[in-house]
Design goal:
Low-confidence stretches: 261-269
Order of helices and strands: HEHEHEHEHEHEEHEHEHEEHHH
CATH topology: TIM Barrel
Number of strands: 11
Number of helices: 12
Number of domains: 1
Largest sheet: 8 strands, parallel, barrel
GO molecular function, one term: nitronate monooxygenase activity
Oligomer: single chain
Radius of gyration: 20 Å
Family: Belongs to the nitronate monooxygenase family. NMO class I subfamily.
Distance between the termini: 46 Å
Protein name: 2-nitropropane dioxygenase
Structural class: alpha/beta
InterPro entries: Aldolase_TIM, NMO
Keywords: Dioxygenase, Flavoprotein, FMN, Monooxygenase, Oxidoreductase
Strand order of the largest sheet: 1-2-3-4-5-6-8-9
Shape: globular
Helix content: 40-55%
CATH architecture: Alpha-Beta Barrel
Length: 326
C-alpha cells in the first residue's frame, strides 16, 4: 500500500463518479500522477466492463511491466445483482485498488486479497467505518459533508480525527475538496489520500455530457441541494438540473423512494437526467484536460505545503526564543 502512495505525484484519487468516470479519465489521471477510479456500473454489461478493464490495464502498464495505480468501484449493496459477474472480471484484470460502496466490503475481500490487491470501503459514518475495519478492509474512504453524489454529513477533519482513533490503515477522505489547499489540509489532518470528484466533472476526459459540464462551470455552492428524494440515500444535486426536469428542489424531501443500486434501469435514468455535484463546484471555471487540472492542484498543494513549513519554522523560532529567555 505504501508503495502505491510513493509512486504518486499528488495524494489524490479522481473519485469514481456514476456515469462520469470512464477509461479516458482513469488513464489520464494515472498518467498525470494521481489515482483514477470508475464505478463498474458505468458499464452497461459485462462485455463493456471487460473492454474497459482491458483498456485501462494495458494503457497504465509500462513497458517494464510496472502498473500505475488505478481503482475500480464496486457497489456491494444487495440490490446489485451484477456484483458476482463484475468481480470475476476484477479478478482477471487485477486493479491494485478496489473501492466498495453502499454495502459491506466483505463480499470482495477474498477475491481482491487473493491477487494481492487492496480493498477500500466507502463509509459515511463511524459505525460503518468500524464494521468495515472489523471484516478486514485495508482502507477506508470517509465520505464527508460537501461530497457530490451520495454524500456524508460529518466534517472531513472531524471524521478523519475520529477514525484515526481506532484505525491506522489507509485513510482516504473526501467532501468539498476541490483544490490543492484542501488536499494539503486533509493530509495534514491525518489522511493518506484525498478524494477529488467534482473538480473532474468538467474535465475534457469526463463522460459527462456537454450541458452537464457547462452547468458545473456556471454553478457555485448556492446551486446545490442535499436530499434523499431521488435515490433514497442523501445526495448532493444541482438545483438547475432538478428544475430542468420538472422537479421542485424545495419539495424534493417529500419523496421517499426505495434504495436501489441495480445496474441499469431506472437508477441509471435518474442519474443520467439529474446531475450531481459537490461543494467544490465553485472552483471550476472552465472545461479543462485532466493533466491541466492536476497541474493546478499540484501548484496549490506545493504552496500550501510551503505555508505549513513556514508556520513550523516560526514555531521553532519562538521555541528557541523562549529557551533563550529561560
Amino acid at each position: 500500500m505504501r508503495e502505491i502512495l510513493n509512486r504518486l505525484r499528488l495524494p489524490v484519487v479522481a473519485a469514481p463518479m456514476f456515469l462520469v468516470s470512464g477509461p479516458e479519465l482513469v488513464i489520464a489521471a494515472g498518467r498525470a500522477g494521481i489515482i483514477g477510479a470508475f464505478p463498474t456500473q458505468n458499464c452497461r454489461n459485462a462485455d463493456d466492463l471487460d473492454h474497459w478493464l482491458a483498456t485501462i490495464s494495458a494503457d497504465l502498464t509500462d513497458a517494464d511491466g510496472t502498473t500505475l495505480p488505478w481503482a475500480v468501484n464496486l457497489v456491494t449493496h444487495r440490490t446489485n445483482a451484477r456484483l458476482a459477474e463484475d468481480l470475476v472480471l476484477v479478478e482477471r484484470y487485477r486493479p491494485p485498488l478496489v473501492v466498495t460502496a453502499l454495502g459491506s466490503p466483505e463480499p470482495v475481500l477474498d477475491t481482491v486479497h487473493g491477487y494481492g490487491g487492496a480493498v477500500i470501503a466507502d463509509v459515511a459514518d463511524l459505525p460503518m467505518a468500524r464494521k468495515a475495519v472489523a471484516v478486514g478492509a485495508d482502507g477506508l474512504a470517509c465520505i464527508s459533508a460537501g461530497a457530490g453524489g451520495h454524500t456524508g454529513s460529518l466534517s472531513p477533519f472531524a471524521f478523519t480525527a475520529a477514525v484515526r482513533e481506532f484505525f491506522d490503515g489507509l485513510l482516504v477522505v473526501g467532501g468539498g475538496i476541490a483544490d490543492g489547499n484542501g488536499v494539503a489540509g486533509a493530509i495534514a489532518a491525518g489522511a493518506d489520500l484525498v478524494y477529488v470528484g467534482t473538480r473532474f466533472l468538467a474535465a475534457q476526459e469526463s463522460l459527462a455530457v456537454a450541458d452537464y459540464k457547462e452547468m458545473v462551470v456556471d454553478s457555485d455552492i448556492d446551486d446545490l441541494i442535499v436530499s434523499a428524494g431521488i435515490t433514497g440515500t442523501p445526495a448532493s444535486w444541482l438545483r438547475p438540473s432538478l428544475a430542468a426536469n420538472g422537479i421542485d428542489p424545495d419539495t424534493l424531501d417529500d419523496q421517499q423512494p426505495d434504495r436501489n443500486y441495480q445496474a441499469g434501469g431506472d437508477a441509471v435514468r435518474r442519474w443520467k437526467d439529474l446531475w450531481a455535484a459537490g461543494q467544490g463546484v465553485g472552483a471550476i471555471t472552465a472545461i479543462s484536460p485532466v493533466a491541466d487540472i492536476v497541474d493546478d492542484l499540484a501548484i496549490q498543494y506545493r504552496l500550501a505545503a510551503r505555508r505549513l513549513d513556514h508556520a513550523r519554522s516560526l514555531d521553532d523560532h519562538h521555541s528557541l526564543e523562549g529557551a533563550a529567555h529561560a
